[in-house]
Design brief:
Elements: H1 2-22, E1 27-30, E2 33-36, E3 42-49, E4 53-56, E5 62-63, E6 73-74, E7 76-78, E8 82-83, E9 87-93, E10 102-109, E11 116-122, E12 128-135, E13 145-150, E14 155-157, H2 160-165, E15 173-179, E16 182-187, E17 192-197, E18 203-208, E19 212-218, E20 221-226, E21 230-235, E22 240-246, E23 252-258, E24 261-266, E25 274-279, E26 284-290, E27 295-300, E28 306-310, E29 313-314, E30 320-322, E31 325-330, E32 335-338, E33 345-348, E34 352-358, E35 363-369, E36 375-377, E37 388-393, E38 400-404, E39 408-412, E40 418-423, E41 429-436
Parallel strand pairs: 2-11
Antiparallel strand pairs: 1-3, 3-9, 4-8, 4-10, 5-6, 7-9, 10-11, 12-13, 12-41, 13-14, 15-16, 16-17, 17-18, 19-20, 20-21, 21-22, 23-24, 24-25, 25-26, 27-28, 28-31, 29-30, 31-32, 33-34, 34-35, 35-36, 37-38, 38-39, 39-40
Length: 437
């Protein structure tokens, strides 16, 4: 009996030894590279393993801060650093505020196996590299053009569009906006929307639209107001018109989007007093809201306040009977509050709204805090003969740009400190479009 027991123990030992001899450690990682946006995000990789493993850092995980090691911080964090079986590891990277991309390596190690490296790359911070400036030119002269300002070199290319295309932009250009890699310019008198490659400045196509005025974008569509009692919808992929919404009002001007609706100012060339509401899904006007006479420009805040301006109203002797003004529309109650602030043009920033006007004597420039509603009169930031004509905002950093009836553009930061100024070569600056990369 004793012999049988000994033989049994020896057999178990042999089997156990054989199992140990058959063990093959494994370590696989997928994927072996991860790319992140500059803003910071979280992604993951999987480890397939049947043995102990550990993740090692390298020096590039740390962001150096002006030689102060106590202020250094890791820009990469992982959800786990060791294990002994299959696992999913989350990798989180912090925002990259530098003007250059950054890279690092995550190394997964296991005894007796080659190291596996995961390359991590993150794009550089966004920055404003240039400005496109649309100038209308004097009325009826056919001199509308787009200038380009290089932020890094401080150089301005006047008549940029004409130089790049060997032909004029057209008469009566009115608005310029960017969506993706394309600029959309409404040329009212010529009757088209010129779509331009923002990288090369070359015209891609001209979409025939009767008297186009303003353009905004939503979900890969461009929405263009017209003087032909309609809003035209353009597909931004095919660059073809794929819908038209008829309006009850005339001479549509400003347009904004809020809560699945388009809000369109019907100026009636000075006689209109309605804002049309267009359902973006059915693309039909669902109602018309009565507002003060001659509504012109309009912007919607994320909180649901819709600010709009009214242009001056004149009598038959060209005497002003109602000067420009700023109003707030409550889209739910359909009520209008008049703020008694001179405003013909308007631009929306993250925390502020800027409104400007010029009555041929005085400049009116105001900065309104969207949270507190405090109004700051900043009219003295330009000289008295500036003749302010337009205002635009940089969505990246909050800078704002003032144009005038001459050829001037002046840039200010959010603290209303002047950053630079330039001349476009053509009068009546209508829009400033930052190029952000």
């Amino acid at each position: 009996m004793k012999k049988i027991f000994i033989l049994f123990v020896l057999a178990l030992t042999l089997v156990a030894c054989k199992k140990d001899d058959d063990f093959v450690p494994e370590l696989k990682v997928d994927p072996t590279s991860l790319s992140f946006l500059h803003s910071g995000e979280t992604k993951s990789f999987t480890i397939t393993s049947n043995t102990d493993w550990i993740i090692e850092k390298d020096a590039d995980w740390v962001t150096k801060t002006s030689g102060n090691s106590s202020a250094d911080a890791e820009w990469i964090t992982v959800s786990k650093i060791l294990g002994n079986s299959n696992a999913t590891v989350e990798v989180t990277v912090a925002e990259n505020t530098a003007a250059t991309p950054r890279t690092a390596v995550i190394t997964v190690k296991a005894d007796g196996l080659p190291d596996v490296e995961i390359e991590v790359t993150q794009s550089k911070a966004l920055e404003t590299v240039g400005l496109f400036i649309l100038s209308e030119g004097a009325w009826g002269t056919g001199t509308s053009d787009i200038a380009y300002y290089n932020v890094k070199t401080g150089e301005t290319t006047k008549n940029y569009y004409t130089q790049k295309n060997g032909k004029p932009l057209g008469n009566g250009a009115n608005d310029l906006a960017i969506y993706g890699s394309k600029l959309y310019c409404t040329v009212t008198d010529a009757g088209y929307v010129d779509v331009i490659n923002s990288e090369t400045g070359e015209s891609i196509t001209r979409i025939i639209v009767d008297s186009p005025r303003r353009v905004i974008f939503h979900d890969n569509k461009a929405y263009v107001t017209t003087y032909s009692q309609s809003v035209v919808r353009i597909d931004t992929a095919s660059l073809e018109i794929d819908g038209t919404a008829d309006l009850s009002g005339n001479n549509a001007e400003g347009i904004c989007f809020y809560n699945d609706n388009l809000y369109v100012c019907n100026s009636g060339w000075g006689a209109g007093n309605t804002i049309s509401v267009v359902d973006i899904n059915s693309f039909e006007e669902t109602e018309s809201i009565d507002v003060p006479q001659n509504p012109m420009m309009i912007e919607a805040t994320p909180s649901g306040e819709i600010y709009f301006t009214t242009a001056s109203v004149y009598d038959e002797n060209w005497t002003v009977t109602a000067p420009t003004n700023l109003h707030v529309l409550d889209p739910e109650q359909k009520t209008v509050t008049t703020l008694d602030i001179r405003a013909s043009k308007i631009a929306l920033a993250k925390d502020f709204i800027y409104v400007v006007d010029y009555d041929y004597v005085l400049n009116y420039i105001n900065k309104i805090n969207l949270q507190t509603k405090a109004v700051e009169n900043i009219s003295d930031i330009v000289h008295e003969f500036f003749m302010v004509y337009g205002v635009s905002v940089n969505p990246l950093n909050g800078d704002f740009y003032l144009t005038n009836q001459g050829q001037d553009v002046v840039a200010f930061d959010t603290n209303v400190e002047e950053k630079f100024d330039l001349k476009t070569g053509v009068p009546f600056g209508a829009a400033v479009v930052p190029i952000i990369k």
